[in-house]
Amino acid sequence: MVAVAESKRLHVESFLDLIEGRTIDFSSDGYIRNRLDIIEQGAFLEQDAVTNLSAHLKDNKMPLDPDIAAITILNKAGMVVASTIKSAIGKDFSDCEEYLQITGNDLTVFTHHPHFSVYHGINSLEVVAPITSMINGETTGMIINAYSEELINKITSNRKGMGNSGEIVIGLKDGDDIQFINSLKYSPDTATTVRIPLHKVAAEPMRLALEGNYGTIIGPDYRDIDVIAAYQHIPSMGWGLVAKMDKSEAFEPLKLLSILALT
Predict the structure, then answer these.
(1) Which end of the chain is more exposed for a tag (fewer CB within 10 A), N or C?
(2) Which residues of 176-197 are buried (b: 16+ CB within 10 A; e: fewer)?
(3) DSSP states of 166-219 as a string?
(4) pTM for this structure?
C-alpha cells in the first residue's frame, strides 16, 4: 500500500505539473497577447480581435492538448473576451476563485480544486495564468484552461496490485469536513457529495495526509470496514491521498500460512 500510494501521488503531481506548464506556455503565446492588447485598447479592430482570438484558441491551441475541455481568456477586469465556449463570451468572471487568486496573490499559475462548471457542464479543474502586454509588460488579463475531473479518476481507478478490495481516494479539507474529489469505488455516483467530519475515526488516514504526514494505519474507512491504509500528502494542492485495502483481504495469506503451519 505504501508503494501504491507513493506511485499514485507522483502520478497526480506529474499530471498537475503538466497542465500547469501547458497553461503557462499558452499564456506566453504572442498572438494571444497581441489580440488582448488590441481588445484592451478598445481600438476599432476590437471586434475582429475577439472573433480571431476565439478562433485561434479553438483551431490552434485546443489541438495541442486533447485533454483540454475549454480555453477562456479574461481581460483585466475579469470579463470573458474570448473562449472556445461561445456562450461564455461577455460573462463576468471577476468573482470566480481563479480570477481572485491570480489578481490577489500575484501568482504565475493557479489550479482550482475540481468543482462543477456551469459553462463546461462537468466537474473540472481549471488552471489559470496571467497574460502580460506586449506593449508595456503589465498584466492585461488571464487564460483559463479547463480539464475534466475524469483525468484524475483515470489515475485513481487503475488499481493494479491492490487486490479485489483495493481503492485510492483523494480528498481535501472543506471546513470541518473531508470532501472526496475522485470517484469512489464503492459509491461512484456520490464522490463529491460524500463528506466525512474530520473528527471521525474513518477520517484519520485522510486527516493525517492533509496535515502533511506520510504513513500507514489500520482502521475503518467511509464504509465502516477495517482497512490497511497508506496515506500521502500532495502539497501543491493541499490534497491528501489514501491507498487502502480491506484488512480481511490483506491478512488472508497469513491465515493460510497459519492453517498450513498447524497441519
Answers:
(1) C
(2) ebbbbbbbbbeeeeebbebbbe
(3) -EEEEEEEETTEEEE-S--SSSTT-TTT-EEETTSGGGHHHHHHHTT--EEEEE
(4) 0.89
The closest alpha carbon to 2, from 182, 242, 247, belongs to 242
Measured between alpha carbons, how far is 75 from 142 in angstroms, rounded to an integer?
A: 7
184's CB contacts (< 8 A; 6+ apart) are 167, 169, 190, 191, 194, 222
On whether the CB atoms of residues 116 and 8 are closer than 8 A, the answer is no
DSSP β-bridge partners for residue 115? 124
Report the distance separating Cα 116 and Cα 99, nearest Å: 16
pLDDT tens digit sequence for 140-185? 999 999 999 999 999 999 988 898 999 999 999 999 999 999 989 8
All three cell numbers of 108, joined, read 504565475
- Report strand pairing: 115-117 vs 195-197: unpaired
Residues 256, 249 contacting (CB under 8 angstroms): no
Query: Max alpha carbon distance in the chain (Å)?
Result: 91
DSSP annotation of 96 reads: S
Strands (DSSP E) contained in the chain are: 68-75, 80-83, 110-111, 115-117, 122-132, 139-148, 167-174, 177-180, 195-197, 215-220, 226-234, 239-246
φ and ψ at residue 187, rounded to 5 degrees: -155, 60
Task: Please tell me the distance from the alpha carbon of residue 11 to that of residue 136, in angstroms, as a whole number.
Answer: 39
